[in-house]
């Protein structure tokens, strides 16, 4: 089981490459995902993270509570071929006007092996 981590990066001043130091802090936000490979959020939504799982589910983490919604946002496991390492539900993009129109776009491998944009 993989864990999803959010990384916070301290801003470093612009210095010559040899003199730069960047500090990263890892914070565990949530766990319990099978094969997470991407996370995103709708424009302007600062309270949720949408986690794309290669096997065909999209889950939502509520950031203030650090909890995962019990029901997936989307479950297309029956529509996704995930047998190969380069197959599965591969991406999610929200329409810039998602809050008004509810549109989002997917990139996944269909059962016949075709890469599909929907």
Question: How far apart, in Å, are the first and last alpha carbons?
Answer: 28 Å
Gross morphology: globular
Radius of gyration: 17 Å
Mean pLDDT: 85
Order of helices and strands: EEEEEEEEHEE
How would you classify the helix and strand content by structural class? mainly beta
**Number of helices in the DSSP assignment:** 1
Q: Strand portion, in percent?
A: over 45%
* Structural domain count: 1
Low-confidence stretches: 1-12
Number of strands: 10
Helix content: under 10%
Offer a quick outline of the entry.
The chain has 118 residues and is mainly beta.
Explained architecture:
The chain is mainly beta. The chain has one domain (29-117). Helices cover 3% and strands 46% of the residues. It has one helix at 98-101; strands at 2-9, 24-33, 36-40, 48-53, 57-62, 67-68, 74-75, 89-94, 104-109, 115-117. The chain is globular, with a radius of gyration of 17 Å. It starts with a strand and ends with a strand.
Output the keywords.
mainly beta; three-stranded antiparallel beta sheet; 3% helix; globular; disordered N terminus
SSE topology:
Blueprint: E1 2-9, E2 24-33, E3 36-40, E4 48-53, E5 57-62, E6 67-68, E7 74-75, E8 89-94, H1 98-101, E9 104-109, E10 115-117
Antiparallel strand pairs: 1-2, 3-4, 4-5, 5-6, 5-7, 8-9, 9-10
């Amino acid at each position: 089981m993989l864990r999803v981590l959010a990384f916070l990066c301290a801003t470093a001043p612009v210095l010559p490459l040899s003199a730069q130091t960047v500090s990263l802090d890892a914070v565990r936000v949530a766990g319990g995902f099978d094969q997470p490979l991407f996370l995103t959020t709708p424009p302007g939504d600062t309270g949720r993270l949408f986690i794309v799982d290669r096997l065909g589910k999209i889950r939502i983490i509520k950031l203030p509570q650090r909890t995962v919604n019990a029901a997936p946002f989307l479950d297309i496991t029956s529509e996704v071929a995930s047998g190969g390492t380069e197959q599965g539900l591969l991406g999610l993009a929200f329409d810039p006007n998602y809050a008004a129109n509810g549109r989002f776009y997917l990139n996944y491998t269909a059962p016949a092996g075709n890469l599909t944009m929907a």
